[in-house]
Amino acid sequence: ESGMPVKEICRELQIHPATFYNWKAKYGGMNGSEIKRNKELETDYSRLKRMYTELSIEHHALKEFVSKKL
Distance between CA atoms of 6 and 9, rounded to whole angstroms? Predict the structure, then answer.
């Protein structure tokens, strides 16, 4: 957006142009606070997924234990 060629930006950041375009698609048009909020939401989402996975494993283990007792 600033007029700097993509190749030059990628060379400075030492990233592949595909990475640049992926970031642009994901974060393009966002300001700093929106990007920060997005990162926080992604962190919360991954934490909740881990919690769900752990609870699901415990649930299945308890169901299996109870079914063996009966």
Answer: 5
